[in-house]
Specification:
Radius of gyration: 33 Å
Distance between the termini: 107 Å
Number of domains: 4
CATH topology of the largest domain: Jelly Rolls
Largest sheet: 7 strands, antiparallel
Strand content: 35-45%
Structural class: alpha+beta
CATH class of the largest domain: Mainly Beta
Shape: elongated
Helix content: 10-25%
Oligomer: single chain
Number of strands: 31
Number of helices: 12
């Protein structure tokens, strides 16, 4: 008798499952269930209409159960935009899935207590996990937009971008699948998730979604920018006045997934300004953001990332053909930083109808290219895991800089000028990703009226670690050129040697003698002393002649040979 009752119970149990399952299959035309569970209940109203409402409820702990769109109604594609309204009705675990192939291969957006996560499961293993702090409320409706373009994943909540990064686990074939809801409550249940106004492959806005930082945001507008108080005094030395390039860089870094520093501090214009100030090469000249220092920051954060895969960003500058290049980058969902005289902003789209760029300006309420002066050039940060090396000379615009290889063949460089607001302009002469070896660098100076100028040579390893050399110039009118030899290394510090200091000096000395600016005795005495100095190895032995040169300068100063004294005075800091 007991066996009879047992079989009756088993029969009724399976009958109920059959009826329950049959009703679901019958009810859902465009959706399918995977991993049926008697503890999970799905409801669907107005199926296929604009007012469609899908909901799932789990009353107890259960293995993951899915409600997924059918391919004949929603064709899986590599690139897509999925937009819907989400209502977490009750419970703390709410999961939206895409790229669903089966219950072991899919992506999910996971709402958990006080956090938001993006996960990718491959073969049942969690291969991607990227999370942020995110406070959400039970019963509140959230507009969610999930888009993917060429592996770039962007997720917005109520039109605010919360994730935007390149998915390094993405595969053009294996990552393509359907969309839906996953029920998998943890220790807190019941859970109910409601999805409304479901739209898949909604027509995209061609603009790239970025966090729009403002340099005059009250949270950091009054922070001292770089060392601006040294060159503008108390006349607003703040981020609000000078921070356009800084703020643009912060927007681009956040776009690529760099949301915080190793300390946990949020990455924004204020924290980025502090980090750059702490670097030996963070700012150049009068407040110019050092783009190569920023590449180093991305390398540091990428190397230290634990649960996410962050790219190292490789910097490049484009002037010729910048317009065509910018359209290519934007089509690939890569924002770029644009420069106009004294100002920087971010290009985040191209309007095909107006045939002009769309932009996010850190200071002005301007949204289109035509509202600004003509764009001069762009700066691009591209994901890379290889070579961040560069040779960078920062110099006065009146100094001409040329590079030669070991065969003394002129090397092509990139040259441009930068300034912010009314600060002094500086020129850049750059070789991006240079080869290891020896380079001759020629500095050609003229028309300076005896002014003392200084150039800075920055060499960056493939990890963007810097070596810095300060170059003082002999700059009397028509003084000629100065050459240094650079021994460039990608994995170690680079070194320099001065080459033609004394030859140039002696040529000038002879000119003074021919026009009778100095006496034969003075010329002879100076020539003999220089002959001794120029035969030594500068980088190792010149310091021993420091006292001798001081005596030489004092000796000839008493004869009031002001011009030749000036030449020697300029040489002294070079040979120390």
């Amino acid at each position: 008798m007991q066996r009879f009752y047992f079989f009756i119970k088993v029969f009724i149990f399976y009958l109920l499952i059959f009826i329950f399952s049959t009703e679901r299959i019958f009810a859902f035309t465009q959706w399918s269930e995977f991993n049926l569970s008697p503890s999970v209940f799905w409801e669907l109203s107005n199926e296929g209409s604009e007012n469609e409402v899908v909901s799932g409820r789990a009353d107890q702990v259960t293995p993951p159960t899915f409600l997924i769109t059918k391919a004949e109604y929603f064709l899986p594609t590599k690139d897509f935009i999925w937009q819907f309204d989400l209502i977490p009705q009750f419970g703390v675990d709410h999961n939206l899935v895409w790229g669903f192939v089966d219950n072991k291969n899919y992506y999910q957006l996971h709402f958990s207590a006080g956090a938001l996560w993006v996960n990718h499961f491959i073969g049942g293993q969690e291969m991607l996990a990227r999370g942020i702090n995110f406070n959400w409320n039970i019963g509140q409706s959230y507009l969610i937009s999930i888009s993917r373009k060429n592996g770039l994943l962007s997720i917005l909540v109520d039109n605010v971008e919360v994730f935007h990064f390149y998915d390094w686990t993405y595969d053009e074939i294996a990552s393509v699948g359907s969309w839906g809801i996953k029920m998998s409550p943890g220790s807190v249940f019941p859970v109910k998730t409601i999805l409304k106004n479901n739209q898949i492959n909604k027509e995209a806005d061609e603009s790239i979604s970025l966090i729009h930082f403002w340099q005059n945001d009250p949270f950091w507008s009054d922070d001292i920018y770089d060392s601006a108080s040294l060159w503008v005094g108390n006349d607003r030395p703040t981020i609000s006045r000078w921070g356009c390039a800084l703020t643009s860089a912060a927007m681009v870094l956040r776009f690529h997934g760099f949301s915080e520093f190793l300390s946990g501090e949020e990455l924004n214009p204020a924290s980025l300004n502090k980090w750059l100030i702490d670097q030996q090469d963070g700012y150049l000249g009068e407040g110019l953001v050092n783009w190569w220092a920023i590449t180093r920051l991305t390398r540091i954060l990428s190397d230290q990332a634990q649960s996410v895969l962050l790219p190292k960003l490789e910097f490049s500058f484009l002037k010729q053909g910048w317009r065509e290049a910018a359209q290519v980058f934007l089509a690939a969902k890569q924002p770029v930083i644009a420069q106009i005289p004294g100002h920087f902003f971010v290009l985040n789209g191209f309007d095909q109808v107006l045939n002009e760029f769309k932009l996010l300006d850190p200071l002005f309420e301007k949204k289109y290219e035509h509202e600004h002066e003509p764009i001069q050039s762009i700066r691009v940060f591209q994901p890379s895991f290889t070579d961040l090396s560069a040779i960078v000379v920062v110099h006065d615009p009146s100094v001409l800089v040329k590079f030669y290889n070991e065969e003394q063949t002129l090397i092509e460089t990139k040259e441009w000028e930068e300034n912010i607001s009314t600060a002094k302009s500086m020129a850049f002469t750059v070789i991006e990703k240079p080869e290891v070896g020896k380079y001759s660098i020629e500095f050609i100076t003229s028309d300076f009226d005896g002014e003392l100028l200084e150039s800075s040579l920055y060499t960056y390893t493939q990890d963007a670690e810097p070596t810095i050399h300060l170059i003082d110039h002999q700059i009397e009118n028509n003084f000629g050129s100065q050459i240094i030899e650079l021994n460039f290394e990608k994995n170690n510090s680079s070194s320099i040697e001065y080459k033609n200091i004394w030859e140039s000096f002696l040529n000038k000395l002879n000119e003074y003698f021919l026009v009778q600016k100095i006496t034969p005795l003075a010329k002879d005495r100076i020539t003999k002393d220089v002959d001794v100095l120029k035969t030594t190895e500068i980088q190792e032995k010149y310091s021993r002649y420091d006292n001798h040169l001081d005596l030489l300068l004092k000796f000839y100063q008493q004869f009031n040979f002001s011009e030749i004294f000036q030449e020697l005075a300029i040489l002294k800091p070079i040979i120390n």
